[in-house]
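=== RUN LOG ===
request id: a7f3
mode: sequence -> structure
chains: 1
length: 443
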Amino acid sequence: MSVKNKYFILGLATVGFVSTISISSLQAQSKNDDSSERIDSMRKLASVLAIVEQNSVDDLNYTAIVNKTIAGLMNEIDAHSSYFSEKSYKDFKVTTEGEFGGLGINVGMRDKALTVIAPIDDTPAYKVGVKAGDIILKIDDKATMDMPLDEAVSLMRGKPKTPITLTIVRKGETKPLKFTIIRDIIKIDSVFVKTLDNDLLYIRVSNFDKKVVADVKKGINEKLKDRKGIILDLRSNPGGLLNQAVDLVDLFIDKGIIVSQKGKNESETKIYEATKGGYINIPLVVLIDVGSASASEIVSGALQDHRRAILVGEKSFGKGSVQAIWPITADGSEAIKLTVARYYLPSGRTIQASGVEPDIEVYMGNVPQKNEDGFEVREENLKKHLEGELKKVENNISSENDNILESLDDNKTVITKYRISKDSQLKSAIDILRSMIIMGVKK
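=== RESULT ===
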């Protein structure tokens, strides 16, 4: 997100402000707009502000009326544009410049509903089971219907170790779910590189921070030797820095457009092209889901358009727009966030509201097993398994097999068979990648 050091001084000091604006200044603002139409529109706005100030049952001062007018305008433009009051602007700058207490979820507006784009790996929200696609109905006791996005984000932030309750509507559930979450300092490890069956490489990118490309390159250079294919996991990745997305694609293609950015103004129109292509001959499969948004959609969509990778999973979120920040007061204490451009993939298609469709659609779930209870226990794990079962009987504990065998996946360098058995999308990606290797497909 770019930040514009611009100031819009609003001439709204009095109800009769229209008389202070000259026709020439209105014409200067837009050569294409009819000046008389502009004056009529400004007069209409002044009339509405005056009526509200004089007749509203609530005692609103003029500043409050103007602020509400600006907030309403920004909310009506699109789901990502908004007005920052002095407090909300301070909170926003904390999230981009410093450490803060939060839940570890990225949210956005979808069909005017506050929707979880993705929980961030190993954060409080992730650990209690919040999922991509969940609709947040209430934050503590406050309903989110018609609540501005930035207000919702502000409510969810807070001091570390303080509790918050989210009421969530989830597809497939017959009634709302409640999650009580303890806020914490959000620290993100964005890249994990693991081996898979000794001949494949698994790269998980959970967020596009400033070190993603460097960490991916380091992981590939250290572990790629003798491995025949790569799985790039962008599921529940809400996005991040554009340059990291562009440079990640650039690792796998050697020429062509990666993404273009088009806006009304020339300064917001840019084209990003490939320059390097360090790993262009190794088969590649990319995993996406409804939590893949923004930068992760640029990566997956560009690789798909270049026929460089096969995409597996579910349709992505559909967030392909660029926002800029303009301070609107002389002291810079208030601001607006406005959508100024949209991203377009190499084929010319837009991500916004459309998302990226996988080449092979696979829904998340367990991988069917030969035995009825859905997991396999090798001899070395049998004693531990039986001890767990005995403990359940003796203490009348009701727990799932996942809780007993969770430690089998506690491996920082290798994707275990147990992990694969619980992830049908990953299993499909492995099978597809192996087929590509056998057929000699390098995409």
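=== NOTES ===
The domain at 99-185 is CATH 2.30.42.10 (Pdz3 Domain).
The chain is about 35% helix and 20% strand.
=== END ===
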